[in-house]
Amino acid sequence: MDRSGLQPILNWLIDGARTPGTSADMIAAVCERLVDAGLPLSRFGIFIRTLHPEIFGRNFIWRQGQKVEMGTVDFEILETPEFARSPLRIVFQEGIEVRGRMDDPDSRRFPFLDDMRAEGVTDYIAVPMPFLDGSVHATSWVTRQPGGFSDDDIASIRMIMAPLARVSEIISLRRTAEMLLDTYVGNRAGARILGGQIRRGHNDTMQAAIWLSDLRGFTALSDRLPAETVVEILNHYFDCQVTAIRGHGGEVLKFMGDGLLAVFPIDEYIGDAAHVCSRVLEAARESRASVEALAFPVGDVFERFRFGVALHVGNILYGNIGGGNRLDFTCIGPAVNLAARLEKIAGRLGRTIVVSEGFAKACQHDWRNLGEFPIAGFSKAQRVYGLAEETPVVMA
Predict the structure, then answer these.
(1) How confident is the model over 161-165, as a mean pLDDT?
(2) SS3 string of the chain?
(3) Which of 124, 205, 326, 355 would give a disulfide with 359, using CB separation of 3.0 to 4.6 Å?
(4) Do residues 111 and 82 lie in contact, with contact meaning Cβ atoms separated by under 8 Å?
């Protein structure tokens, strides 16, 4: 590769690799500029480790003439024989380059390169990409050029690593912030926080369907089982709900012990309250089935569980609430308070799903009128509805 063609690419990266579009578009632009400058590159991979409870890392693979492929890898890969014999394992763990020329017998120690060899690849090099925090990420460079990469090609690859690492780290930090916010406050709230809504008092009024649920008998469960077992049970129990909530357009805002608060935004301009509430009810029924099917082994027996969920629809105040520099992005308002009161009524009635009169009017279903109930903090008694299909269960 001609070094004179490399400097404009270095300058472009140092300036932030300003490319309209996604991270994949930026990677494609880097590779195409390098090829145009004379680097005989046929395939490029970049592997970024992530700060995520389930995902070990993300990868982007560029092939000449094709779109960039993106993927994620979970932590289970670390235990696989493929990873143990991968060049990238050495890069991640030792932070050194690993080269595999196809005409070098030593390259046979990496089964991954057998596939490369079958595709006509002549040379492969994996290069560490250290971030400023000390973490090591990786890139891989592949060519079909007869004789493999030249010394000048390798030198050019090494020269580009520092500015490429800085740009990649900036993008990675932004994505890490997004993922952490999604994980801890939800994607809708996370987007608002990243958009600058970080001051106390930043809030909006939103119409939404409200979900408030609670695990029955949790106090007694916590008293008789080890804390570690209780945490594991809660994780499985919340899995039964979160999957259904997110799958039907909801956002989990908060876990409160064994309680869960979620919202399903309603577009007031479209007027889709009926459609949204129908999805909420479907999520509640799916969650009910999942919780009923949950059987957790404790010693020689299996623990079974029941929960209650109250559904309401109304206006909420959605935004930053807290004291000092410790804020919470959540929702408050009479509608949330009513949902919390209804959930307690569900427990008294032995019902899994109860809804407010407003929710029942918005969602056409075979409802059973359960009567009017005085609600603390509300001047009028509230009418409560349950599913006609549901048989009440009196908790012992």
Answers:
(1) 95
(2) CCHHHCHHHHHHHHCCCCCCCCHHHHHHHHHHHHHHCCCCCCEEEEEEECCCCCEEEEEEEEECCCCCEEEEEEHHHHHCHHHHCCHHHHHHHHCCCEECCCCCHHHHHCCHHHHHHHCCCCEEEEEEEECCCCCEEEEEEEECCCCCCCHHHHHHHHHHHHHHHHHHHHHHHHHHHHHHHHHHHCHHHHHHHHCCCCCCCCEEEEEEEEEEEEECCHHHHHHHCCHHHHHHHHHHHHHHHHHHHHHCCCEEEEEECCEEEEEEECCCCCCCHHHHHHHHHHHHHHHHHHHHHCEEEECCEEEECCEEEEEEEEEEEEEEEEECCEEEEEEECHHHHHHHHHHHHHHHHCCCEEEEHHHHHHCCCCEEEEEEECCCCCCCCEEEEEECCCCCCCCC
(3) 355
(4) yes
Question: What is the b/e burial string over 185-208, where b = at least 16 CB atoms within 10 angstroms of the residue's CB?
Answer: bbebbbebbeeebeeeebbeebbb
Q: pLDDT tens digit string along 179-203?
A: 777 777 776 667 767 766 666 666 7
How many C-alpha atoms does 18 have within 13 Å on its Cβ side?
Answer: 2
Q: Which burial class, exposed, middle or buried, applies to 259 when counting CB atoms under 10 A from its CB (0-12, 13-18, 19+)?
A: middle
Per-residue pLDDT of 81-94, as tens digits, reads 888 889 999 999 99
- How much is the pTM? 0.68
Q: What is the pLDDT of residues 369-382, one digit of tens each?
A: 999 999 888 889 99
Task: State the architecture of 199-387 in CATH terms.
Answer: 2-Layer Sandwich (3.30)
Fold of 3-185: Beta-Lactamase (3.30.450)
Q: What is the C-alpha separation between 298 and 229, in angstroms, rounded?
A: 8
Report domain extents, the chain.
Answer: 3-185, 199-387
Highest mean pLDDT among 74-78, 120-124, 184-188, 267-271: 120-124
> Cα separation of 346 and 369, whole Å?
13
User: How far apart are alpha carbons 211 and 282 in whole angstroms?
Assistant: 12
pLDDT at 201: 65
Other Cβ atoms less than 10 A from the Cβ of 19: the count is 15
The angle, 0 to 180 degrees and rounded to 10, between the axes of the packed helices 151-185 and 23-36 is: 170
